[in-house]
# Entry
Amino acid sequence: MQKSYGVAVLLSFFLGGLGIDRFYLGYPWMGILKLFTGGLFGILWLIDFIRILIRHLQPANGSYS
# Structure
């Protein structure tokens, strides 16, 4: 299933600290880690947000729609 780039950016910005962006992109174990650590205390949230913005962090199936 194709994932939307815009949805990924919004989820990362607003709910990235809870790991929702990683769940959406198909990385459930990283989502659980972010959920229980608050996005690794905000650091991983920021890194993931930047990686999604520059399209370095792709969905598990390989591409955005």
